[in-house]
UniProtKB/TrEMBL annotation:
It comes from Dictyobacter formicarum. InterPro entries: Amidase (IPR000120), Amidase_dom (IPR023631), AS_sf (IPR036928). Residues 25-421 form the Amidase domain. This is Amidase.
Amino acid sequence: MILSTSLTATAAALRSGQLDPFAYIDTICERLDTVDPQLHAFLPEKDRRGRLQAEVAALQKRFPDPLNRPALYCIPVGIKDTFRVDGFPTRAGSQLPAELFAGAEASSVGMLRAAGACILGKTVTTEFAYFEPGETRNPHNVNHTPGGSSSGSVAAVAAGLCPLALGTQVIGSTIRPAAFCGIVGFKPTYGRIPTDGLVQCAHSVEHVGYFTQDVAGCSFVAPLLCRDWRSEYSGQVEPLPVLGVPDGPYLAQASAEALAAFEDQLTLLKKAGYRVRRIPVFPDIERINRLHMRMVFAEMARAHAPWFARYETLYRPRTLAAIREGQTVSEEELAQGREGRATLRAVLEALMQEAGIDLWVCPATQGPAPEGLESTGSPLMNLPWTYAGLPAITVPAGLAANKLPLGLQCVGASMADEQLLAWVAPMADILASHCSIL
């Protein structure tokens, strides 16, 4: 069910005319028709192929000269069903009426359209981007979860149904599923990709992220979506970054298998010339986890207040429990949770400066994707970085004993997204050259 596809190569071929866009879209639709009945990455749509062919025809008419075609000319993208997209209903993985979530199209979707992308369709999400899963399966083994909450988007990219898809992250909804499915997931610094046009879970930590199969594709998309992207950093990889390992109770949340794989990854990187420094950090990780989650619950409760009383019976159990707990969070406690974001970010960046490290590195997940579809897995390895709003990326970094993927999570300083992507690209190549991925 896995199919390798290069976003950069496909985009170049479509722009130049080497690849016929109509034939390419036909191929994509045929693969979707064959694979998605088992994968369940996309929401159903009548005459998807006809709509896409019309979009391609409009783009071809608008950009007849190959030299003037935009970066994502005729590239099909998947959009998580928490984003508003013109022409599509938005349900956010719920049973609530779609008209409740109607509104202007998300700016991030508009940016992709401006870059020439076609909307392949809406992808499955957990209910309101929380923990109640949809039907999407992991393309490496359909008996396992793909992770969440951006389940459909990650599965679509991993299976080669599209080379790019949008997701979100409030705890670990981009990094975790990307690691589970053996691809690249990128969550920029908080606020660098606009979050308007979303059915939001918790706005204080709501990040837009995206999925590609490699770091080159991720770097290709970043200037198109991230505010004030500094292209002068592209390709800047010298000197090698100093890597920081966040030792302590945070790291101990990972399984023995994930930690053993992480040590193997560090050994490979050290052999390639990277310096690794172990820094005690997050001694109060349980308090950080609680601050973050209580803040998320509170913001969920407040966001759903206009609908909850009327449609409470339509909410699934885990979402219902989160909202009910959020109703117990006082304004004072919510304010403390929000203030803690800046405090933690300052602590982490001070530690980076004092220890002379450029990137934090750690397991992207507690282990491989859990079996079954009842759970999307734990996001605890992603939580503190999301809470602090720091840019994070996961790259494929090995296989677990059950042959499912594991990922390495790399985290940079706030607003240092450009350096993060430039530094991670050669690290990903080193790991890929020593690990059997896909």
